[in-house]
Amino acid sequence: MVKRFNPDKRRRPKVDDYFGDWKWREALAESMVPIVGKLYRNGVRILMYGRPLLNCSALEIMKLHRFVREVEGNELSEIETYPVLEQISKMKLMPCEIDIGEMVVHLLQNKQLDSEKYVDKSLVEQKRTKRSYPLRPKDIVIYGFGRIGRILTRILISDTGAGAKWRLRAIVLRDSGHDDDLIKRAGLLRNDSVHGAFPGTIRVNKQNNSLIINGNEVSFIYSDNPKKVKYKDFDIKRATVIDSTGVWRDEEGLSQHVKNPSVERVLLTAPGKGKIKNIVFGVNDDKASPEDKMLAAASCTTNAIVPALKLIDDNFKIINGHIETVHSFTNDQNLIDNFHPSDRRGRSAALNLVITDTGAAKAVAKILPELKGKITANAIRVPTPNVSLAIISLTVKRGVGVDEVNECFRKAAFGSNLRETIDYSNSIDAVSSDYYSNEFALVYDSQATISNFNNVTIYCWYDNEYGYSRQVVRLLKKVLDVNLVRYPKQ
């Protein structure tokens, strides 16, 4: 069994009245809920070691406080965090993200610091002194309303915040010809068999052919030609289009979007071909800029394996390796046996394990050219609806133990520029369904790591729908230059 991380840096005195302590902390957590909501409406997102507190119940907030033990060896108490949150709520801040967990732990580990002065000094540059947002929010359009399109809609609406920096303005899709098309689209957005109910309200406006989603009016435009979409009729200007159809993946195809006078750029939610840059946020997003007219967010698998490979290569130097992805079935497969142009994928997805190919190795070489020719890859499609697993077996330059590999990933997940990309699990009972709607590109399973001198095998879970969509949105914010500054800074 792999040794579990537990430095127990801060030994908390035991309480005499567990129930009384619980009720006290529960009351504080309940008081946090409206404060977090008010800050969000003013553009300030509160996090607990990367996990958002927005829309969390009091009990969920308490669970997040306990989660901190996975990072720091001891949970946080609401008694410790509430005063800091209350102080933040009284400050007039420009839009930003504040990780209250990291901030409070820093205070607890440096008891000589004055709490109020530390918080004030940490956030001084975010104090609102002038207009901190554009005169007009930047327009976003989703082209395609399948699995990824609908999840992106959920995320973009939930991340709108004060609504000053950007707004989801429209969704472009093919007309089904059904009289109740808009109602059915609303139903698919409202209830999802995998990710559950939409956290908010959705109203159908038949007159405008739009949905009012948490107060955001999103127009539904029927078209099958990107160049001919009449965005101007909807007052959409200089839009960023997220193409989630996968129909066009090269420069010639994607250029149809930017030839529309109302479109500034297009972001593809699939691997780009030819000269299209493939970007994995957290790894090579420095190559993406607001000047790029066409970008690709690569694939869900590429987003899951590339950060892990880069971390291993940077720390231990990869000689060679193989990646096997155990991937949930997708719409590309047949529910029952039927013709399919690809080998094996014509067989029933619900009844079989299906060996298939993957472009993961080629994608790795594009993003991490130093690994070109060193990595092979294959995939197995399995009869589960969501969450996949990358099994990465590598030969590295020197001998390395399990604990050293785990510590490398733990530090990356909680204290590096990959903290938005890599999640870390210490659970001995983790299974795939535990990671439905997980926000990270990958979840490193520390309990599954294997090491035999310089041969290392790691297991990385990833929500191939939600986690990937989050990566797309992170890249979107990067190219729109609307990423929120996160405090405390690393």
TrEMBL record:
- Protein name as catalogued: Glyceraldehyde-3-phosphate dehydrogenase
UniProt keywords (A-Z) are:
Oxidoreductase
Annotated GO molecular function terms are: glyceraldehyde-3-phosphate dehydrogenase (NAD+) (phosphorylating) activity; NAD binding
Q: Tell me where in this chain the Glyceraldehyde 3-phosphate dehydrogenase NAD(P) binding domain is found.
A: 138-300
Which PROSITE patterns is this protein grouped with? GAPDH
Family per UniProt? Answer: Belongs to the glyceraldehyde-3-phosphate dehydrogenase family.
Q: Does the keyword Oxidoreductase apply?
A: yes
Its Enzyme Commission number(s) read: 1.2.1.12
